[in-house]
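Troubleshooting: if your tokenizer reports a length mismatch, compare your output against this known-good record of 143 residues.
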Amino acid sequence: MSDEGPLWSDLERDLARDDDSAAREHLLAGNPVYVGAPQAWPGCVMRLHPDGRREIVQLDQATGVFSVVAELDQLPPDAHWWRRPAIDPAERERRRQAVAFARASVGLEGFTPSAEAEALAARFIDGEIDLPTFLSASVDRHS
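Known-good structure output:
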């Protein structure tokens, strides 16, 4: 732990949790969160607002003020992951292991999952979609 005060202790604790609970808490409290921006905007971060607005922002080191570099499409309400119940860490780990097993099985057959399949798997692991939705989306892609 850092000895630089309670702010740093809280930050280190939140980082150690390795989940989205801190971001979820901030968004549900009505505050924006800042996350890594796509590589197209080096030196910038994405600011996500509770209403789903997304902006690419850059911090002016001299003034400490963020300036908006780009406005991204607003997330539709069904994509507001912070409003969904948080997935239990044990369930997340169970899902991660199941996906890893499936990925290994597919690999033994000589196949590699597509980027779309990997994105679906990540949504399943994160609890955004349930197993029937995950399987149905996977089957629909190959029908």
